[in-house]
Amino acid sequence: MVAHQFILNGQSVTVETPADLPLLWVLRDVLGVTGPKYGCGVGVCGACTSHLDGEAFRPCIHPVGSTAGREVMTIEGLGAQGLHPVQQAWVTEDVAQCGFCQPGQIMAAVALLRKNSHPSDADIDAAMSENVCRCGTYVRIRAAIKRAALLLRSGAGVNGG
């Protein structure tokens, strides 16, 4: 066991785990942060998508040992001060059906909108192509991202994001 210190949703945390333990298990099983979901364990479904130093990443394939001193944000941190515009757009567009993939979808959408404030359908499809929704809510996801882009461009707050 090795001590690992990193910033999680704005708070410094220290955990003692093997360095090669996937961060997803540290988040869920050690720290009780259950927003990032276990979907595949190999980084292809996107259910666990979170942010590392502001960039989307998959904690299911990222060892905790490589997070030392870095900033990790999960869906819990995104909405810590109230709904982020992407979360609000998700509610308004009634995106969620089963909801399992939605934390990862939202975190991927936030990362997209940080880089591209006017995404086209093709931009959205490309950015979200690695996040799987078994319920097939892709049309609503695209609509929510467009709505969130408008909210962000109009000066809506980006609480925690």
UniProtKB/TrEMBL annotation:
Residues 2-78 form the 2Fe-2S ferredoxin-type domain. The keyword Oxidoreductase applies. One of its GO terms (molecular function) is metal ion binding. Keywords: 2Fe-2S, Iron, Iron-sulfur, Metal-binding, Oxidoreductase. It holds the Pfam family Fer2. InterPro entries: 2Fe-2S-bd, 2Fe-2S-bd_dom_sf, 2Fe-2S_ferredoxin-like_sf, 2Fe-2S_ferredoxin-type, 2Fe2S_fd_BS, Beta-grasp_dom_sf, Diverse_Oxidoreductases. PANTHER family: BLR6218 PROTEIN, OXIDOREDUCTASE WITH IRON-SULFUR SUBUNIT. This is (2Fe-2S)-binding protein.
